């Protein structure tokens, strides 16, 4: 990839310089979904959306989740707020009002259920 980019950039005869840095990837984060944190989150999602959550392995763009877990020694989870069409991290990123309101309800229900599990 670097060789290709360098060759293509050279064809531009640009006065600018090209610098490509190959950084190591972030460490993967996999959570234990059987703890109190996830139990409360599952109950919250069920209460707000009326369905059990899909526990997906995504959010690769949030590598700090693993760092938070390592530093605090506590379980970390990511609660759903946005929709699949929200274009996260793009120039067209958005969140629908309905999703924002539902996400707020999920957070409140999560805190309620976490206090009771």
Automatic annotation (TrEMBL):
> Which superkingdom, per the lineage?
Eukaryota
Q: Does the keyword Aminoacyl-tRNA synthetase apply?
A: no
What InterPro entries does the record tag this protein with? Cyt/Met_Dipeptidase (IPR051458), Peptidase_M20 (IPR002933)
Provide this UniProt record's keywords sorted from A to Z. Answer: Hydrolase, Metal-binding, Protease
| Pfam families cross-referenced by the UniProt entry | Peptidase_M20
The molecular function GO annotations come to: metal ion binding; peptidase activity
Q: Which GO terms describe its biological process?
A: proteolysis
Q: Does the keyword Acetylation apply?
A: no
Protein name per the record: Peptidase M20 dimerisation domain-containing protein
């Amino acid at each position: 990839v670097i060789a290709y980019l360098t060759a293509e950039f050279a064809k531009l005869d640009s006065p600018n310089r090209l610098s490509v840095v190959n950084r190591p990837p972030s460490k993967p984060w996999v959570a234990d979904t059987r703890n109190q944190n996830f139990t409360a989150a599952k109950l919250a999602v069920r209460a707000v959306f009326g369905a059990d959550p899909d526990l997906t392995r995504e959010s690769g763009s949030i590598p700090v989740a693993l760092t938070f877990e390592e530093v605090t020694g506590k379980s970390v989870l990511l609660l759903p707020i946005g929709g699949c069409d929200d274009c996260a991290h793009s120039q067209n990123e958005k969140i629908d009002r309905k999703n924002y309101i539902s996400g707020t309800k999920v957070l409140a229900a999560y805190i309620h259920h976490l206090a009771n599990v």
